[in-house]
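Morning. Coffee machine broken again, so started the prediction first thing and wrote up yesterday's gels while waiting. Chain of 581 residues, entered below exactly as on the submission form.
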Amino acid sequence: MPTDFEFNLDDVELLPRAQKIKLLAQLERMPSAPESTAALVSKPDPRLFITDVLGEKPTAAALSHGIKVPWTPDQDLVMQSLLDNRRTLAQSANSVGKTAIAARCALWWLYRHPNSIVITTAPNKRQVEELLWGQLRELWYRSKVRLPGRCLTTSLIVDAANPRWKAIGFTANEQKGDISATAFQGIHGPYMLAILDESTLIEKQIWEAIEGMLTGPDDRILALGNPTLLGSQFHKNSTSRAWTRVVISALNHPNVVHNDPNIIPGAVSRTWVEDRREEWGDRSPLYVSKILGQFPEQGSDTLIHIGWLESAKARWVEANARALREEDRKGIAAGLDIAGEGSDLTVLSIIQNGAWEIPEAGGQRTVHFGKDVNAAVELVQGLLAEKVRIRILSLDDTGLGQGVTSALRRLQREGKIPRDMWINPVNFGANAWDHERFDQTKDQLWWTAREVLREREFSLPPDEVVQGWGLPSGNSLDAQLMAPIYEQVGGGRLAIYDKYGARGSREKTKSLPTKSPDLAHSFILCVWSWLKLRSNEEPPPPETVTELFAQRLRKMIDGSSIARRNDAKRAHLPPWASRRR
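Came back before lunch.
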C-alpha cells in the first residue's frame, strides 16, 4: 500500500463499523489498474519482482554469511522450474518456505501477465485463507511498489473493469463437498497459473479438473506438499516424467547450513533438526519426510502409516468447526495411561467432537511426570472440575493402575465424582477379548486404533497445536504412533511391538524405542472409550462387596510367592498333568 494509506489487517478488525465503512469507500475510490502497470509487466523473472517490486532484501544475518538474496537455493529452483516447465512439483520438508515462495510466484505471475488468472487451492479452508493467502495478502499490502487492484481474503482483482484478471483461492475437498471438480469448468484465460498447496491430500478428481483447465502452451501448474501419503496423486506425479520435481530438504536451508536462525527468521533451525533426529532417528519415516523432503518407505509390518496421521491432522479445523456430534451429547470419551518408572508420563486424553486432544485443567495440560497414584486421580478430578463430562474413562489397570481404579471407584461411592462415569479398567497384558485374532489386550487396542485412523474416522491436532501444549521434550505422538510393528504369532494371532523388550529382547524389536509410548497408550485407550460410546454399550453393573473382596483375594493369591512356585512347578509338567488342579 502507499505510504499515505497504510494499515494493519488485525487493527482493522478493531475499528468501529463507521470507520470500516469509510475505509471501504476509500478502497473503492482507489485506481484498480493504473497505466504504470508496464513497470510490473516488465519483470520477466520472479526474482526481479521480489527485489524490485516487493522490495524484499536479505537480512543482516544473511549478508554476514555472504547470502545476497532473500530466498533460499531450493526456492530458487522452484522459481526457475516455474519459468522453464509447465508442471512443477515441489516435495518439501517442514518450515522451509514452500508456501512463502508460492505466494510470491502467484503475485509475480498475476502482474507479469495482463488478463491472467491465478487459481490456488488447498485441502481445507484454514490452509487456503491463513497459509498461502495469508502470506499473499501481507506481501500485497507491504509491497514497495503500489500493486493495483483490491485484495480480499481469498481473491485479488487487478482491474475492476476487467474482473477476469484475478487471483482466487478455493478449498479443494471433494469428500466434504467444499468444491467439486466441476467448479473449475469454464475458467479459462490466456495465461493461467494453478497453485496446489498442501497437495498431498488433494483428491485425484481435482488434479484432473485443473489439468483440463490449463490447456494453453504458456499455462503453468505448481504443486507443493509434504511427502507423506504413499499412493496419493501427489506421490504418483512425483515419479511422472510429465512433472519436474524439486526436493526441498531442511538440511539445505541456510538457517541449518550456517547454524543461524536469524538468516530467515521463523524458518527451520539446526537445533530443531537435531532435536528431531534425536527423537525420531534419521531413518524414521517422520525424519525422511519432514526433514529430508522425501517419501518414506514404510515396511509391510508397519502398524500405522504417516499418511494416515497427516490426513487426520488436515481434518482438525473441520472437527472444531462442525456442530456437536451425537456421541458428544452422551458425554466425552477419555483414556488414562498411568506412568511406570523413570521419565514416564501419566497422560489423560479425550476425544471430543471427533477430535483427539490432551485437554487443559487448571491452566495446565493433563499430564504428570512419574509414578504417583494420587497425581493420576487428581488429573481426572481436575478435568471433571472443568465441567468436562466424561462418560467413559478407559485406563491402564496394569500394575499401578489398579490403585488408580480403586481410588476412582471409592470417590464414586462417596459421591465426589459423577456416579454415571463409566470407569473401564483395561489390563494391557491380559488375553485379548478377541483371542482368535489377537495375542494380548494391548494388541487389540493398537489394531483398533490403527483401523480408526486408516478409515479416517476422526482428527488429530496439527504439529503447531501440539507444540503449543508445552509437553515435555521427547514426547511426540507422531513418533509413538508410527514406531510399532506387528507380526503373526502362534495360531495366526497378531502381536504388536511398541517398545523394545516389551515381549523380551528379541531381534525383531531391536529398532524400537526403549521409552514407554505414554501418549500413544492414552490415545489407544481413548479410542477404545470412544468406540464404546458410539456403539451405545452400557457399563457393567456395580460390583458388590463380595465381588470386590473376591477380586482382591484373587490378586493376593496370584501375587503370592506360593502361587509363583506352584506355577513354576506346573510349567515343567506335561500338558495333560498341568491341567489337573
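The longest strand covers residues 162-171. Going to sketch it on the whiteboard this afternoon.
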